[in-house]
Specification:
Blueprint: E1 2-3, E2 10-11, H1 31-36, H2 46-55, H3 82-91, H4 112-121, H5 123-126, H6 139-163, E3 169-179, H7 181-189, H8 195-203, E4 205-211, E5 218-224, E6 232-238, E7 243-246, E8 254-257, H9 259-268, H10 275-280, H11 284-301, E9 307-312, H12 319-323, E10 331-336, H13 340-356, H14 358-377, H15 388-397, H16 399-408, E11 412-418, E12 421-429, E13 434-444, E14 447-454, E15 457-466, E16 469-480, E17 483-499, E18 505-513, E19 522-529, E20 532-539, E21 542-549, E22 561-563, H17 565-569, H18 577-584
Parallel strand pairs: 8-22
Antiparallel strand pairs: 1-2, 3-4, 3-21, 4-5, 5-6, 6-7, 7-8, 9-10, 10-11, 11-12, 12-13, 13-14, 14-15, 15-16, 16-17, 17-18, 18-19, 19-20, 20-21
Length: 585
């Protein structure tokens, strides 16, 4: 323990700044170094930093602290634009590699193998981990902890969606329609508004659904055209061993097949079963253990030698271009820009840990096996897929290549904070010209702005609050190769505390395909009435209302069972009139 010479407060071993007054605990730096506002590099190597992180594990119970909380209480430095700073950094010649640098304007392509290495770097913030969410004292751990907390808040939206199926899902859906006179006339002229179609549109349809907790089994009771004499009734079920159905209007029998064996005998060379869906899920316990394991390795690679701290402005990559919202304050920016030697050591350490990680290897290899089974069943023959040990070997064998490539392209990982709030997380190449991942969030006069960009795909939201509830816009642009698709979802009167049966908050929505805000789009409303949720869509064609109950009544079809394995293997199915009946609809 020591004492701060500025305020006299006790300080912990290894701390850089006083937790009470914020003053720097080390000797004052020269004016040149202070102007750059970088942290003083500690003596020692990355290996020693890793040992120090392990020794401070006992402090895991302490509250997490943002790296920016311990900033020195020094006078503010002149604010400079980040773009200019990055260009100046890029223009500075390196002492030992001046002649080896590529010509200006030329960029080396980023191979898929190097992207695997970047994906490994993202492990620490990709899932969230208990270990990195605690303040263990090292710069790397605090650097990751702030990002984990920020992304965990955003992940709450996904968690609420998962909760819909967390304990299985059961609900009764009733779809009713009310067509406009214009649409009725159009359907009548086409000969569609008569017979079974009219019954279905007039009386509505019902689907009673049950889905197991791990998607391993499901039941569907279907009625098209409800009433005493529905147009079509059908009951279906599936579990890991059997698939069955009953058509009450055609027969009281339940036709059953042991579909895994049948599919295998039909020549797919695969034994497909719904039990595979359970194996595909990434267990929460394994997720936490995985990031705890690899988060330590990444945290140990981030130290005071390679983590730079600055007070300056930040140029937005998402909010400004997409939502016209500028981030123009004076922020604390932490930049991790490791050299090739540090990256190579990191990749080799991760590869060594992967060799010992039996739990993750078992899940990953099982996932690959299931992928092979589905590929074969669909007529594809991909051969043997990549196993976990192959990934470890590939990472180790190419560690030097990946590291050099990332150094050549100036790989940088940035954390931008305002006080205790995370404003941006950025993984970039080429001095900022190429963003691998960028997350930004800001609030301004009660409005919320947030967005995430992964390469060229962008998801943003702008939200505000009025007396009737929240209103805003969610926009998405998905890019893949030469194909780009976009949409926007406008919402109003939304109450995020009132979730519907399907998880969507109650309120009014307008879906705009293509993101054209001037178009009418598709308008729909979500509301709760008692134990039911209603999803009502209206347009010039009429209205369509889906009613969903909080509890379902789906039941397995009952009756005398008849096995149809032989008929399926012979290419003949019972009830030959089924296809004609459905075709007549």
């Amino acid at each position: 323990m020591g004492k701060c010479k500025h305020c006299g407060s006790e300080t912990g071993e290894g701390e850089l700044f006083c937790a009470n007054c914020g003053a720097r605990l080390e000797e004052e730096k020269s004016e040149t170094v202070a102007a750059k506002a970088t942290e003083e590099p500690p003596g020692g190597t990355a290996e020693k930093a890793a040992e120090a992180a392990a020794e401070t594990k006992e402090a895991e119970h302490e509250e997490a602290t943002e790296p920016g909380v311990r900033e020195a209480a020094a006078p503010k430095e002149p604010v400079q634009e980040e773009a200019g700073a990055e260009k100046e950094d890029a223009a500075e010649p390196k002492e030992t590699k001046e002649t080896a640098e590529p010509a200006a304007g030329k960029k080396k392509k980023m191979g898929s193998a190097a992207l695997i290495a970047l994906a490994v770097l993202g492990l620490a913030i990709g899932f969230g981990a208990r270990t990195v969410s605690k303040n263990l004292g090292s710069p790397g751990e605090r650097f990751l902890a702030g990002q984990f907390r920020a992304l965990s808040k955003e992940a709450a939206v996904l968690n609420s969606a998962e909760q819909v199926f967390e304990n299985g899902f059961s609900s009764d859906f009733q779809l009713t329609t009310e067509l406009s006179d214009r649409q009725v006339t159009a359907l009548t002229r086409r000969g569609l508004f008569s017979g079974p179609y009219e019954r279905i549109l007039r009386d509505g349809s019902e689907a009673r659904i049950f889905i197991g907790k791990k998607f391993e089994k499901a039941v569907l009771n279907l009625e098209l055209g409800r009433g005493d004499d529905p147009v079509l009734q059908a009951d279906f079920f599936i579990d890991p061993d059997r698939l069955g159905f009953r058509l009450p209007k055609k027969s009281d029998k339940v036709y059953v097949t042991r579909y895994p064996e049948v599919l295998q005998e039909l020549g797919s060379e695969s034994r497909l079963s719904t039990s595979m869906f359970a194996d595909l899920q990434f267990p929460k316990e394994l997720r936490a253990a995985t990031v705890k394991r690899y988060g330590k390795i990444v945290a140990a690679a981030i130290n005071r030698n390679n983590l730079k701290t600055e007070k300056r402005s930040y140029r937005s990559r998402v909010l400004k271009p997409e939502l016209k919202h500028s981030l123009e304050k004076d922020y604390t920016i932490y930049s991790w820009e490791p050299n090739a030697e540090e990256l190579e050591r990191l990749f080799r350490n991760i590869a060594d840990e992967m060799e010992k990680d039996r739990a993750l290897a078992a899940w990953y290899d099982r996932r690959q096996e299931i992928g092979e089974q589905f590929a074969k069943a669909s007529g594809q023959h991909p051969g043997r897929s990549v196993r976990f040990e192959d990934l470890a070997d590939r990472l180790r064998d190419n560690a030097e290549t990946y590291a050099n490539r990332l150094e050549d392209r100036k790989f940088t990982w940035k954390l931008v904070t305002e006080g205790r709030e995370v404003r941006a997380i950025l993984l970039q190449l080429d001095g900022g010209d190429t963003q691998i991942f960028c997350y930004e969030r800001d609030t301004d006069k009660g409005k919320l702005y947030r967005g995430v960009k992964v390469f060229d795909s962008v998801l943003t939201e702008k939200r505000d609050l009025e007396k009737s509830g929240y209103y805003g816009t969610v926009a998405c642009r998905f890019s893949r190769w030469f194909y780009t698709e976009s949409f926007a979802l406008k919402y109003s009167n939304v109450d995020f505390k009132k979730k519907s049966v399907l998880g969507l908050p109650c309120g009014k929505y307008r879906l705009l395909p293509g993101g054209d805000e001037d178009g009418d789009g598709i308008k729909f409303e979500v509301r709760n009435e008692g134990a039911n949720s209603f999803y009502e869509l209206k347009n010039e064609l009429g209205s369509f209302t889906l009613k969903a109950t909080k509890t379902g009544t789906a039941a397995l079809p009952t009756g005398e069972e008849e096995n149809i394995d032989d008929e399926l293997l012979d290419g003949m199915t019972p009830q030959q009139g089924i296809s004609k009946f459905i075709g007549a609809l």
